[in-house]
Structure formats: structure tokens, C-alpha cells
Amino acid sequence: MSVVVTGATGHLGRLVVEALLDGGLPPADIVAAGRSVEKIADLAARGVRVAAIDYTRPDTLVAAFTGADAVLLVSGSEVGRRVAQHANAIEAAKTAGVGRIVYTSAPRADTSPLILAPEHKATEELIRASGLPFTILRNGWYTENYAGSLEQARATGELVASVGEGLVASASRADYAAAAARVLTSPGHEGKVYELSGDRAWGHAELAAVIAEIVGRPVTYREVTPEEHLAELTGAGLDEGTAGFVVALDGNTRDGLLAETTGELTALIGRPTTPLAEGLRAAA
Ligand SMILES: NC(=O)c1ccc[n+]([C@@H]2O[C@H](COP(=O)([O-])OP(=O)(O)OC[C@H]3O[C@@H](n4cnc5c(N)ncnc54)[C@H](OP(=O)(O)O)[C@@H]3O)[C@@H](O)[C@H]2O)c1
């Protein structure tokens, strides 16, 4: 079979390629596609086919997707531009006649008020409208998202957030990648929408304790209001837009939008998801 992985130059896509190889898919059956393909020269050296693609250049997408039984469309990283970019990829998948498109979405993307949900919802709708066989992987939060908090706590002894008591059911990127590899290479996933998340949801007091253990110094969770958080972030030099985004995401966390534990990730990968401490230690 032939499987294309977009975003293979990024963190998740690379891990999916690794998981496909670990699962025994021959390197020549994998197309690792990304923008800056110099980042994946090592995969090419291992016999994986490499394709330079840009979501804004449909010709590159059609060329990379032609002959694929399945294409993993890893959602792009340019927030605000992604619907048009993903539309190009979906159209290219149709033109190329791919067997199935698998998309990395967000938790409850069709109904969630999560600030990141609208682009994923729109993409899911485009996929359904395309008539292509599909699978949607609604990936929950990555544990690795907290690597920055870990570095801050290492320097200051504080974990500052406006998430209140909100819980996060995170899992490691490698867990989501294992699920993607499974869905790409086994039957029975057509038309399915998976809500993927870690097995256990944790709060920021626990996160502070885990970070303290890793950095080897006491770490306090200092809970701030959204207004205080915004002022602290802009005061530290973050631009208004980025600071507002961080505070809005903390608000989403406070509202429990990242807390759901569905067990669907564990069911797909056939093992427990990576615990917070283990995932964060690996990311540190
Ligand atoms: N669930 C979560 O917690 C979470 C957190 C952050 C992001 N995400 C989403 O999940 C995706 C994968 O996560 P990640 O950690 O692997 O992100 P990442 O390391 O930033 O990788 C993003 C990938 O998207 C590619 N890309 C971006 N714009 C592109 C374009 N115009 N054309 C072609 N490729 C393009 C990048 O290619 P180049 O490297 O070649 O430029 C890279 O391979 C992200 O892009 C984002 O949509 C989820």
C-alpha cells in the first residue's frame, strides 16, 4: 500500500512516519511530505519517499498524492489561513483519486467553543462534502505543549496560568502518531470520527508538582485572572495578539474543553497513553 503523510517535516508527522516504519510498512510505501524537506533528509536516507509540498500550491499536492491509498492531512500551523490551505489539499486528494483521507482535527470540533475549533470544523465539512472516504482524528492536547511552562518554572519556580481548576486530558504526540499509523494501515476506519485524548485528566497543581520533580526545585502554581494573565504576558514582551490567544486557550481549559477522557486513543493504540510525568520528562 502507499501512504502519504503531510506535515512530515513537523513533530507529529515525523512521529507518524516513524510509527509506520516501526509497524513494518516498507519505507518505499511511505511518502513523507512537507514544506522544508531538508528537515527529513534522514528519512529519505532510510528509503522513505520524500515529497516537497505546500498547501498553497495545489500542483505540489496533486503530484505528492497521486497513487496513494491513504493520505494523512496533518492540519497546518498557520492559524487563520488553514481552511483555504486544507481546501487545496482536499481538492488535490480528489483530483489524485486517493483511497482515503485522514485528518487531524480538534476535540469535538463540530460543536466545541474551543478557539481553535472553527478551522477544524470547516475542514471536516469540506472533507465530508468532497465525497472521499475519510477518517477524522480529533486529537486532544499534546503533553509537549507544556514544555515552555516547564522552562519558565525551571527559571522562576512558578507556573502561572489562568486555567483555574480546569483539567487537561493530554497525551504525548507519539500516542496520537501511533493512532494515526494504525488508522492509516488497518481496515474498518472509514467514515469514523475518533475523539482522542489521554487516559487521565490532570490539573495545574498536579502539573506544578510534576514539573518540580523534573526540574528539581519547588514549583508553585500561581493562579491568576484572565486580566492579570494578559497584563503579565504583554508586560513580559508578548504581543497583544499572542497574549490574547494564550489567555483565551487558558479560558477554554478552565471551561473544561480539553478535559474529556474518552478512552478512544488507548483503544486504538492497544496500550495506555503516556502519563503526564513521562511525557513531560521526554519533552524536557
Ligand atoms: N493537539 C495539540 O495540542 C496541538 C498543538 C499544536 C498544534 N497542533 C496542530 O497539529 C499540527 C501538527 O502538530 P505538530 O506539533 O507536528 O506541529 P509542527 O511541528 O509545527 O508541524 C506543522 C507541520 O505543518 C507543515 N506546514 C505548515 N504550513 C504548511 C504549508 N503551507 N504547506 C505545507 N506544509 C505546511 C509544516 O511544514 P514545514 O515544517 O516544512 O514548514 C510542518 O510539517 C499543527 O500543525 C497544528 O495544526 C495541535
Quick gist of this model?
The chain has 284 residues and is α/β, with parallel strands linked by helices. Helix content is 45%, strand content 14%.
Estimated radius of gyration: 19 Å
Structural category: alpha/beta
Top CATH class of the largest domain: Alpha Beta
Strand portion = 5-15%
Helix content: 40-55%
Order of helices and strands: EHEHEHEHEHEHEHEHEHHHH
Helix count from the secondary structure assignment? 12
The CATH H-level superfamily of the largest domain is NAD(P)-binding Rossmann-like Domain
From the 3D structure, determine the CATH topology of the largest domain: Rossmann fold
Q: What's the pLDDT, averaged over the residues?
A: 97
Instruction: State the separation between the terminal residues, measured CA to CA.
Output: 36 Å
Count of beta strands: 9
Question: Spans with pLDDT under 50 lasting ≥5 residues?
Answer: none
**How many domain units?**
2
Principal-axis shape equals globular
- Which small-molecule ligands are present, each listed once? NADP nicotinamide-adenine-dinucleotide phosphate
Q: Could you characterize the architecture of this molecule?
A:
The protein is α/β, with parallel strands linked by helices and 284 residues long. It has two domains: 3-139, 3-Layer(aba) Sandwich (Rossmann fold), CATH 3.40.50; 141-171 and 198-259 and 274-284, UDP-galactose 4-epimerase, domain 1 (Alpha-Beta Complex), CATH 3.90.25. It is built from twelve helices and nine strands. Strands 3-2-1-4-5-6-8 form a seven-stranded parallel beta sheet, with helices on both faces. A two-stranded parallel ribbon has the order 7-9. Strand 5, helix 5 (117-130) and strand 6 form a beta-alpha-beta unit. Helix 4 runs parallel beside helix 5 (117-130) and helix 9 packs antiparallel against helix 10. The chain is globular, with a radius of gyration of 19 Å. The mean pLDDT is 97. NADP nicotinamide-adenine-dinucleotide phosphate binds at residues 7, 9-13, 34-36, 53-56, 74-78, 85, 104, 139, 141-142, 145.
